[in-house]
Amino acid sequence: MNREQYQGPSAPQQKSTQQMHYLCADCGVENEIKPKEPLRCKECGH
């Protein structure tokens, strides 16, 4: 096998940054939350 023909494993692809929308149960403000980010309202802290 030629090394020119060999294609090693590719670098892992970055995951897309998915954001979810969270409505605060206390004040009703819509917050954007990223994966692994704590669920905390940015307006009232609930």
TrEMBL record:
Family annotation (Pfam families): Zn_ribbon_RPAB4 (PF03604)
Gene3D superfamilies in the cross-refs: RNA polymerase ii, chain L
Keyword Methyltransferase attached: no
Keywords: Metal-binding, Nucleus, Zinc
Lipid biosynthesis is among the record's keywords: no
GO molecular function, one term: DNA-directed RNA polymerase activity
One biological process term in Gene Ontology: DNA-templated transcription
Transmembrane segments: none
Cellular-component GO terms for this entry: RNA polymerase I complex; RNA polymerase II, core complex; RNA polymerase III complex
Compartments (UniProt record): Nucleus
Superkingdom of the organism of origin: Eukaryota
InterPro entries to which the protein is assigned, alphabetical: RNAP_P/RPABC4 (IPR006591), RPABC4 (IPR039747), RPABC4/Spt4 (IPR029040)
Family note: Belongs to the archaeal Rpo12/eukaryotic RPC10 RNA polymerase subunit family.
Protein's UniProt name: 5377_t:CDS:1
Organism the protein comes from: Ambispora leptoticha
